[in-house]
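Fold this sequence, please.
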Amino acid sequence: MSKDVKKKLLFVLLAIAVMLVIGFVPAETEAMSRTAWQYLGIFGLMLVLLITAALPDWATCLAVLALLVVFKIGTVSEVMSQFGSSTVWLVIGIFTLSIGLNNSGFLKRIALWIVTKFPGTYRGQVTAMFVSGLITSPLIPSSLAKTGVLSPLTAQGSESSGIEPSSKPALGIWTACFMPTYYFGCAFMSGSAYVALMIGFMGGMEFTWGSWFSALWPWLVVSIVLTYIFCAVICKPKQTTATFSTEFIKEQYKALGPMSKKEKQGIVILLVCLILWLTQSVHKIDAGMVALLGSAAMAFCGLITTPDLCAKGQWNLIIFIGGGRCQHTQSSIDKHNNTRRKRGAQATMKKYTKEHQWIEIAEGVAKVGITHFAADELGEITFVELPQVGTLIHGGEPLCVIESVKAASDVFMPVTGTVESVNEELDKHPEMVNDDPEGNGWICTVKDPDEAAINTLLSEEEYKAFVG
């Protein structure tokens, strides 16, 4: 047994010991059940394995998921649920799109074209790297692919200008190449695979391409400004006459010749995907499914082959992202089950809003619907547009739309919470809301509703007085 194998075995045994000590030694409390301690122990095992690199990241994730099932913290379907989520399939889709776009050659063409448009000064080339990185960042999630296109240009440019390796100007020009292609991609849902992992740990929050960028653009602007100042001002060479030869870049661009058919196909497919991602809130087509359809279109055009998919699919990272989301989801499930057990011992509680919605907590389940008064006012109900499971909706925001022979009306969320399930019977029988609005005509169940806000709502007596 080699020294390296012995070292890894030692770390694996240490990780197992951490799991067993945390999982079984502490006493159970009202706040921490034995299952919760076991989950925490498995999480400790994961941290030790990741920090020590005793196993590859993807192998650690698979082992942790298996242990969650072995210790009966969750069922196989619960533990592996996130591998069927839209986010994981979005990651698979955009990685596959990256393969096709890279194979088309368009990414290299656009990077070379941008660099040739800037002067051969130090600041000009720093700016060129910035612009190239920012334009290519949202196109594909593979940071290595984007950095791989620009880094040879950076190396050749630095050598031609006489910049010494490990000098401040070298650091500046390399930072200008690395930051936009690697870190700034996190501002775009399609710009980094780690975006999916970040969203996965946000506890049920859902984003579209546009809403993610809207949330991240302030960070992006500040990062661009500060990084550019560092590269162009702090790291600038003392000899302001130092120039970069861009002739070799122009020669590479010229050698590409006219845009090929495959390049045109790749950019058209990508643009269609980007447009659909940006307008997701309008057409409601899932972003993951858009990415998969785009991947299928690239395969049809010959931009992706089966060997490409097997060799360049980044499956280890996909397993790590999916596994990370599954572990977070399982933590939420365990927390929710504990909350349900606590609520199950409580008496039934039902509250009303002035917008004529009700929320009822009974046996640990929080249901939401509209009142008899609202159903009578709407008249014959013809359609109920149910909310999307997993969506976090704040109190007072629209939950769904109910259409009747009179009009279409919004139903508002009584309190902040995440939609856990919906009454699918309403798809076939919307009239159930008329027949039994506060019983079988319920709309959805809510996970972890804001209990403090529930207590501020109207009681049944107060609501009856309100409606007269």
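Confidence is low (pLDDT under 50) at residues 339-346. The first strand starts at residue 349 and ends at 352.
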